[in-house]
Design brief:
With 80 residues, this protein is α+β, with helices and mostly antiparallel strands. Strands 1-3-2 form a 3-stranded antiparallel sheet. The protein has one domain: Histidine kinase-like ATPase, C-terminal domain (Heat Shock Protein 90), CATH 3.30.565.10. Helices cover 34% and strands 24% of the residues.
Length: 80
């Protein structure tokens, strides 16, 4: 797997907000549609990956996604 983390040290997201972030049409922006993170998660999961959000212990938020490498996909296909 390949893992990518995007970390910020802003004001963070409440626990309640994190629970809803991937819900379609949930937004905190006046002009937002609330589909961006839901679409991102769908694309990543379609490719057998995972997208998660956590609080940053130093303040802010950590978004992490993982995707399988090509060799992992090939091994999985051979064993199926």
């Amino acid at each position: 797997m390949v893992e990518v983390a995007v970390i910020d040290r802003g004001h963070g997201i409440s626990e309640e907000g994190r629970a809803q972030l991937f819900t379609p049409f949930y937004t905190t922006k006046a002009e937002g549609m609330g589909m961006g993170l839901n679409i991102c998660r769908s694309i990543i999961e379609f490719h057998n990956g995972r997208l998660v959000v956590d609080a940053n212990p130093e303040g802010g938020t950590i978004f992490t996604f993982t995707l399988p490498t090509e060799s992992a996909i090939e091994r999985s296909a051979r064993s199926a």
